[in-house]
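Fig. S4 source data, part A: sequence.
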Amino acid sequence: MSTTKASKVTTTMDPDNIDEEALITSEAPESVEIMVTGNSDLQGDYDSNDIDFPKLGVAQAVGPLAEEWKKGDIVIDGDLKVGDLKNPVLVHIIKANKRYVEDLPYGGDEIPRTFNTKEEVFEAGGTITWGDGAPSFKAVMDCLVCIRASDEEWEQTGETKGEGKWVKRKGDVEASFPFDHDGEHFLFATWRIKGASYKTAAKKVTQAAKFYYRESLSQGNFVLTTELVGRRDGGSYVVASLAKGSQNPEELRNWFKEFTA
């Protein structure tokens, strides 16, 4: 990969009490709202729920990505690796929607309730503070992201998808990155940011919207990294972080606007 970042282990984020299941980011988020218009061949009442975007996920020690991928791998739809602990990913965040999702045990049959505001949580008898006996809700951020195809791709060399190496791209780029603009190929995906990653990623999106990408989030891009956070028992979990990237060219910003218009 063209950009690298050494993996590291820190102990700054509640290392002893972290709920690793709450960090799983590969679950399907609710749709990030975009309009479905502009094609006269499409008739009926359509919205974002009628579009099946791939999902961006970060592999943890537990969860649906754990058996195939290594901790910290950044994966699209459980199949396409685009980054890892040493290789950040440049992402464009096109839309972001903050919600409150009921905190239920991972893997259960019960469907968590979702509300758009704290007031709706309180009206339903819930709380956003853990431990007071009421049903607990946690903030999540559902994002529509865009990733450009790099010059390298992940080649599997072992029995699991997490065993492999980065090689010069030789496959069919359009199969995985089906959108093209100005000679480059892109994919769009949805990403739910939650758990400890909410502080290190979702809050950075809010910060950008407030200060340096005030016109629109697509005004610039972000650098998505993953890192191991250590616990005193010797284990570790993964946190995803976003950092400010660079300003996007005006033509690319206009393309993003057309995509979501």
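Fig. S4 source data, part B ends here. The first strand starts at residue 9 and ends at 10.
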